[in-house]
Amino acid sequence: MGMKYRHLFGPVPSRRLGFSLGIDLVPAKTCSLNCIYCECGRTTRLTVTRREYVPFEEIETELTHYLSTNPAPDYLTLSGSGEPLLHSRAGELIRWMKAHYPSIPVAVLTNGTLFTDPEVRRAVLDADVVLPSLDAATPRVFAKINHPHRLLQITEIIAGLVALRQVYSGEMWLEVFIVPGVNDAESERTALRDAIVRISPDRVQLNTLDRPGTVSDIRAATRQELEKISAVWQLPGVEIVARTAAGPEQRMVRAECESVILETIARRPCTMRDLAHLLGMHINEVNKYLGILEKQGKIESRRQGEDLFYLRRRAR
Ligand code: SF4
After folding, report:
1. 72 burial class (0-12, 13-18, 19+ CB within 10 angstroms)?
2. How far is the CA of 16 from the centre of ligand 1 (A)?
3. What distance in angstroms lies between residue 177's CA and the mean position of ligand 1's atoms?
4. Which atom of ligand 1 is nearest to the CA of 146?
5. Any long-range contacts for 158-162 (C-beta under 8 Å, 24+ apart)?
6. What whole-number distance in Å separates Cα of residue 96 and Cα of residue 122?
7. pLDDT digits (tens, 9 = 90+) for 92-135
8. Protein residues whose CB sits closer than 6 Å to any atom of ligand 1
């Protein structure tokens, strides 16, 4: 008890991975890109050099401690404030996690730029889900949206993702981050579509800004803009994961909202914020349903420190 983790964070509720325990493999902010929309702030160490940025043994020790004292998260996720595959022992870590905790899925959130290296492609072979991002398919737009390290070429990166798909048999969910006026012109959309067809991921997840990025004059795409891209692409497996996605016609009806909230908190007590984040709902809406469910005696709340947790009320 009482161990302070330096490399683990969460579990944080995320829309794509449920309750995910984040493992930060590089110090902030070490990345091969410096995306204009990055929520971790500007890249201070722009690099493509792989090395052991944080000691492997420290991560192992923290994970062992965490997993012996806490319920299993939905995913163990290599992520954090930068590019996790820059860590030279990322592959070893994935294999270690699968050997010791085979029942917990391992996810890798990556910018995908390092898959040009066969060693990096091999590193993720044992992961259950790889979530690379791809925001551009032409050098000009790549430079504009991702501000890459000078050694990176978008055509090579796409070829790296194609090569990864050929050797990796787990799930691949490709995230495309849309910034209106930067990467949504028709020519870029077409080039991106061609790249996606070649890569052939299991899912394509359209996303946009949630919080302000490092550049202040960019804005989030609207739900309509994302839907239009998805409609003109006509590709299988495209979904909108942006928070803006919940439009009126897509909103869950009341019964659905109540049952999804009940199912979620039956698995693990959640705060109102957790639920809003996990379910992509507005906090006021979550509040409303929690009120109804509490009145019906289906749930109860418990205070723990600063936070109010909601949990399923057991039938007596
Ligand atoms: S790849 Fe991810 S961490 Fe790196 S700059 Fe882009 S958004 Fe930020």
Report:
1. middle
2. 17
3. 11
4. 6
5. 158/134, 158/195, 158/198, 158/199, 159/116, 160/112, 160/113, 160/114, 160/115, 160/116, 160/117, 160/121, 161/112, 161/115, 161/132, 161/134, 161/195, 161/199, 162/198, 162/199, 162/200
6. 14
7. 999 999 999 999 999 999 999 999 999 999 999 999 999 999 99
8. 31, 33-35, 38, 40, 43, 82-83, 111
Nearest CA owner, ligand 1 atom 5 = 34
* Two tokens, residue 97: 């996690």
* pLDDT of amino acid 316: 55
259: left (phi over 0), alpha (psi -120 to 50) or beta: alpha
Residue 22's alpha-carbon distances to 52, 81, 105, 241, in angstroms, are 18, 10, 12, 19
How many angstroms separate the alpha carbon of residue 19 from the centre of ligand 1? 21
Counting from 1 in the atom list of ligand 1, the atom nearest the Cα of 43 is 5
Class of the CATH-defined domain 250-312:
mainly alpha
Domain boundaries, the chain: 8-245, 250-312
Q: Is the pTM value of this prediction over 0.70?
A: yes
pLDDT of residue 2: 64
Taking 70 as the pLDDT cut, the residues of the chain under it are 1-2, 211-215, 244-253, 315-316
First to last CA, the chain: 32
The minimum-distance atom of ligand 1 relative to the CA of 177 is 7
Phi, psi (deg, nearest 5) at residue 190: -70, -45
Instruction: Return the pLDDT at 57.
Output: 97
pLDDT at 114: 98
pLDDT at 248: 43
Q: How far is the CA of 34 from the centre of ligand 1 (A)?
A: 6
- CATH top-level class for 8-245? alpha beta
Q: Which of 24, 29, 33, 43 to mutate to test the pocket of ligand 1 (most atoms within 8 A of CB)?
A: 33
